[in-house]
């Protein structure tokens, strides 16, 4: 199971095509249009995005945007076991329909209200894709994050485990003086596809704020794998992409840890300058270098406090997610949330 494409519903696909080209370094591939909807396809490395907007009030995009802000509406996956998935869906009495507009056998299902998933059959080993290189080094999707309402985490995790064979991995409980969340990370055993699912622990949680603004459960952010996070962050920043800020105390705390992080003074200076989060994973064997998980997060891209991107670099095959970075992200979003409340925007 591997991601083929991610579709967004936006107000103006042409304008957002230019945004992704000019700010994120994506390359335009093609355009499709019918009587109701226009779509632009862009790519970066193995990543393919579809940006759709309405050209007529009867378009499904127009209807969607009446009740929800722009965001992710459809995840397209290649799967090698479509018949097995069909059997499981039938056993669970889950409705699905045959997919249209693709050259492969497939189905489309709605996991939660407003978020569909398209499964296309692909029997090739490895599910390889053609990859194009870009100046940003953004080359693959590392993971997706889905926010669900209180009480829905367990059943949604169960659904993905039973239908798609995703395996539960790390669990997180993040709690600050203001609010918190529960999170479960799921991983596909063959392809390494990672999906994190969050639910709020209080009415004022940032996860609940997302749900309130989004009008439903949905994809909170997509993590983009990069070759060199400092270069990518610098390029995107100079192009006008805005990132969440990190307080100085975060780096002071990291520098004071024992054992110390394996970073030179110049490397620390780079991370602090561009406000990149870092987690250290000690080497398991003497012949291996220490692994570093490096992450940074954009501000919400559509105006509403909903969808954003993450840049992530995994040095020396860093695995999973560090709780320190997870907590730092939560606090960064919480600071923005509190600022909106102080400014009377919520």
Automatic annotation (TrEMBL):
<keyword id="KW-0408">Iron</keyword>
<dbReference type="InterPro" id="IPR037523">
    <property type="entry name" value="VOC_core"/>
</dbReference>
<keyword id="KW-0560">Oxidoreductase</keyword>
<dbReference type="InterPro" id="IPR005956">
    <property type="entry name" value="4OHPhenylPyrv_dOase"/>
</dbReference>
<keyword id="KW-0677">Repeat</keyword>
<protein>
    <submittedName>
        <fullName>4-hydroxyphenylpyruvate dioxygenase</fullName>
        <ecNumber>1.13.11.27</ecNumber>
    </submittedName>
</protein>
<dbReference type="InterPro" id="IPR004360">
    <property type="entry name" value="Glyas_Fos-R_dOase_dom"/>
</dbReference>
<dbReference type="InterPro" id="IPR041735">
    <property type="entry name" value="4OHPhenylPyrv_dOase_C"/>
</dbReference>
<keyword id="KW-0479">Metal-binding</keyword>
<comment type="similarity">
    <text>Belongs to the 4HPPD family.</text>
</comment>
<dbReference type="InterPro" id="IPR029068">
    <property type="entry name" value="Glyas_Bleomycin-R_OHBP_Dase"/>
</dbReference>
<feature type="domain" description="VOC">
    <location>
        <begin position="140"/>
        <end position="276"/>
    </location>
</feature>
<keyword id="KW-0223">Dioxygenase</keyword>
<dbReference type="GO" id="GO:0003868">
    <property type="term" value="F:4-hydroxyphenylpyruvate dioxygenase activity"/>
</dbReference>
<dbReference type="Pfam" id="PF00903">
    <property type="entry name" value="Glyoxalase"/>
</dbReference>
<feature type="domain" description="VOC">
    <location>
        <begin position="2"/>
        <end position="122"/>
    </location>
</feature>
């Amino acid at each position: 199971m591997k991601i083929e494409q991610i579709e967004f519903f936006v107000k103006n696909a042409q304008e957002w095509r230019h945004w992704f080209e000019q700010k994120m370094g994506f390359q335009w591939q093609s355009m499709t249009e019918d009587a109701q909807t226009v779509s632009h396809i862009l790519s970066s490395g193995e990543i393919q995005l579809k940006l759709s907007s309405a050209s007529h009030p009867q378009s499904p995009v127009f209807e969607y945007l009446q009740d929800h802000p722009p965001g992710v509406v459809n995840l397209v996956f290649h799967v090698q076991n479509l018949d097995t998935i069909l059997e499981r869906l039938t056993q669970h009495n889950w409705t699905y329909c045959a997919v249209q507009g693709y050259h492969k056998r497939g189905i489309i299902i709605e996991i939660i209200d407003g978020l569909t998933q398209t499964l296309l059959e692909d029997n090739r080993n490895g599910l390889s894709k053609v990859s194009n290189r870009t100046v940003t080094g953004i080359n693959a999707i590392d993971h997706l994050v889905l926010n669900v309402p209180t009480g829905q985490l367990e059943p949604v995790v169960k659904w993905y485990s039973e239908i798609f064979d995703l395996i539960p991995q790390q669990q997180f409980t993040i709690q600050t003086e203001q609010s918190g969340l529960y999170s479960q990370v799921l991983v596909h055993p063959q392809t390494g596809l990672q999906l994190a699912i969050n639910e709020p622990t209080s009415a004022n949680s940032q996860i609940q704020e997302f749900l309130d603004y989004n009008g439903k459960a949905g994809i909170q952010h997509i993590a983009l794998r990069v070759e060199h996070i400092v270069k990518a962050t610098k390029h995107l920043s100079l192009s006008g992409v805005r990132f969440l800020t990190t307080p100085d105390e975060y780096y002071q705390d990291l520098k004071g840890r024992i054992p110390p992080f394996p970073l030179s003074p110049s490397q620390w200076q780079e991370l602090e300058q561009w406000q990149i989060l870092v987690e250290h994973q000690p080497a398991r064997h003497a012949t291996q270098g220490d692994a570093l998980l490096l992450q940074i997060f954009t501000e919400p891209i559509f105006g509403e406090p909903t969808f954003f991107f993450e840049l992530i670099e995994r040095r020396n095959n860093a695995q999973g997610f560090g709780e320190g970075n997870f907590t730092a992200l939560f606090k960064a979003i919480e600071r923005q949330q509190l600022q909106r409340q102080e400014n009377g925007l919520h």
